[in-house]
């Protein structure tokens, strides 16, 4: 399915929209205001993140990775991770399998 879902507030200053989904994969846009954070968490899904705009400091299993527009990273299944938005921007996240909790 390729129908876009409504934009939802994931947290203060963080907006999320599912762009496309199928049982085996999901594509999600997440827009952050500068200074906002994605809290540390983990999930069984493999996550690939592409930085469409802005600058972010990701924490993945205790390691800090700073990324900017055009950069990407893969977060393994079960890895504890989160991010801090250094410059307002947008992430494009792909999850496999689909994150049913986002629907």
UniProtKB/TrEMBL annotation:
Gene3D superfamilies: Jelly Rolls
Occurrences of domain Cupin type-2 (ranges): 30-86
Pfam family, one: Cupin_2
Name listed for the protein in its UniProt record: Cupin domain-containing protein
Protein species of origin: Meridianimarinicoccus marinus
